[in-house]
Amino acid sequence: MGQRVWVYGAQSYRAFGTAAQYTVVPDHLVVALPDHLSDELGAALGIPGITAHRAVFGDGSVDGRTVLVQGVLGGVGSLAAQLARWGGATVLGTVTRGKDLDRVDPFVVSHAVALDQDDPAKAIRAYAPQGVHRVVEVALSDNADLDAEVVAGDAVIAAYATRADRPQVPFWPLLFANVTLRLIGSDDFPVEAKRQAARDLTAAAAVGALSIDIGARYPLDEIAQAHDRVDVGGRGRVLVSIPQ
Question: Which residue of 91, 101, 176, 206 shows the fewest CB atoms closer than 10 Å?
């Protein structure tokens, strides 16, 4: 009783989620939160963190590898970049617009590229002339051709979706590069993969390797406004606070 924790999957296949004062979940979905970590960080791990971990480590270690994170400022993308850096990778990242480049943390992301520039694939290859070994992909439909141009042989593309997506995959370029395409959905990850992700997320956070950008805070009775804020997008994570 009274132990600080973070949870994940509280809404998956259940009627209620974490937008409440209380939630009941199986004990394997509850993870101890070290005392020196903030409630805000614990609240922001959850499904984005589990998804990010699977995208980065689902095919093994990234130590000494080059990882490209598409949408590096997003909820999953930002955590994926930090986890890859924690795991020993050189991290490249993309943002949608050039004006967002100054928001990318250079300690985490060695080089950032804006997708609205003339030839983003050429820019990425300039930083990774032998190709990238792993791609964390948020918009496969939009970026598949770009991914095919920048991957190394035997690379892995781990793609998740934030909206309905019917990708047109450039089959032959990916085939000739011997690329593995992994489509990931956090609800149905193997149980042990989720547990390992929870352990690693907590360990990385405990040593200061994970942080979050908070864009807005709402009290619980303004949950509808919080959802609206998420829908319209904008900088940083949206947090909902519970009255004490």
Answer: 176
